[in-house]
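Tutorial sheet, problem 5. The two components below are modelled jointly, 228 residues in total.
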Amino acid sequence: QLQLQESGPGLVKPSETLSLTCTVSGGSISSNNYYWGWIRQSPGKGLEWIGTIYYSGGTYYNPSLKTRVTISADASKSQFSLKLSSVTAADTAVYYCARTEQMASGPFDFWGQGILVTVSP
Amino acid sequence: ETVMTQSPATLSVSPGERATLSCRASQSVTSNLAWYQQKAGQAPRLLIYGASTRPTGIPARFSGSGSGTEFTLTISSLQSEDFAVYYCQQFNNWPPAFGQGTKVEIK
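Model answer (structure tokens):
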């Protein structure tokens, strides 16, 4: 059974860079036709798609976050990562990694459990 | 940007009754619409994709319909485990977007 697990700091200071990793087990991120994405959920904005990556390097970002987001993948470790720079309190959210098939935009059929990231001094 | 609007915000239903949830897109998303169920403290779970297709393992009491801009999720006979928040998501237009959710609560 495919499993995704987010990891990273739960607390980030304002103006710094949020860095999270998603480790995939029970499957390979280099499988054809699968894309790997990040989605966040905050009380104020609900569910927000951040971006998606194809294992070979193609990336797709939400225009609202594009200038601050970088998603990368390491197939040898079966991991993909999210970096979000210049964070503010508005970036406080639960961050999920997820998988989608065929299309970078969804639907997302497997999700990690989520990790709460708080932006605070 | 395609805005997804869900109604109602909260739906009070008795166990065994039918629940009907709506999702409207600000522009056509054809049939590229998904529904998710989220319980407290858990990640969303995919219930429906392609507007009406259930993934393997999703009970038949969940059904989806619609195309273009108007979509419906129907739960034919609510079970105790169905009380949760439901989100729609369009993946036809860029960027993909979620609705704000409908909470289904026990009446």
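Marking note: The radius of gyration of chain B is 13 Å. Full credit if you identified this.
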